[in-house]
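lol ok so funny story. i was supposed to be doing the assay writeup but got distracted and ended up predicting the structure for this chain instead. priorities right. anyway since i did it might as well share w the group, maybe its usefull for someone
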Amino acid sequence: MNAIPHADERAVLVVTDPQNDFCPDGALAVPEGDRIMPIVNRLARQFTHVILTQDWHPPGHASFASAHAGKRPLEPVEMDYGPQMLWPDHCVQGTVGAAFHRDLDIPHVELVIRKGFHRGIDSYSAFRENDRRTPTGLAGYLRERGFERVTLCGLATDFCVFFSAIDSREAGFETAIALEACRAIDIDNSLARAMAAMRQAGVAFA
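and the output, tada:
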């Protein structure tokens, strides 16, 4: 797929985590994260159907370094479900940091998927939690609505966008990434690894 679908009733745009804490001055800032908002707004106008995801952690979430004595943000740890990167406290439920960025302007959003609200499990993907077993319900929603094509954008390319794209493909959806409307954290070459894995999974880049 070389072009973004226009007004396609079988296509949906999923915007991952366009939230204050992932933008400059936020608790887990993605470089230039705020600069995607006008691009996302323009892209969303090409889609009849748009879904947002929202990181929505309770205080003391297990993915926060502050919940682990002696640990710092960006240190890896082993959880019951496998390896987990620790993060600074971010996108805590009901805080300004968890709110959508003020420049986001997509009035026709049809659904907001909140993720990461299970205290003991982190969640990058729009489709399932990091234990790779607990669904968010998005795949079932898309199937019931008859969607076949998913375009993803948002923050961050190498984490939430990446995991969402992989899970979208595994769920059987034709999947594309609108790269201009994404920004990455890029920890220890994570962006290059994510791009390679997405290509191998059959994700298109628009």
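Residues 157-170 form the longest helix (14 residues). The chain has four helices and eight strands.
back to the writeup now i swear
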